[in-house]
């Protein structure tokens, strides 16, 4: 069974593009674009390993979503992408997080 990663971002196509570009990784990708979708994904998928949030969202919304995840699923690590690397930095950021947080630990198990 593949590990599940929740991708959170401003635009649906951005998250879809990330999943398509990284479809070679043994990961099941879920997406969310607002607090309600984050709640829904957390309720519907108990196997989420980590959450990765893009930098395009407003800080208030990012904070709200971090709070939702932390309150409902304190077992999930939350990774926030920096803004300085711009939109092109999202795929490399997601790949680094998934490799170090999930795939490396699977290989060492």
DSSP helix count?
4
What is the CA-based Rg, rounded?
13 Å
- Taking the alpha carbons of the first and last residues, their distance comes to 15 Å
Taken from the alpha-carbon principal axes, the silhouette is globular
Name the average pLDDT. Answer: 93
Tell me the β content. Answer: 15-25%
What class would the helix/strand composition place it in?
A: alpha/beta
Strand order within the widest beta sheet: 2-1-3-4
- Listing every helix as H and every strand as E from the N terminus to the C terminus, the arrangement reads EHEHEHEH
The total strand number stands at 4
Low-confidence stretches: none
Largest sheet geometry: 4 strands, parallel
Structure description:
- The chain is α/β, with parallel strands linked by helices and 109 residues long.
- The protein is 48% helix and 18% strand.
- It has 4 helices and 4 strands, in the order βαβαβαβα.
- It has helices at residues 12-21, 35-44, 59-72, 90-107; strands at residues 4-8, 28-32, 48-53, 77-80.
- Strands 2-1-3-4 form a 4-stranded parallel β-sheet, sandwiched between helices.
- The relative contact order is 0.20.
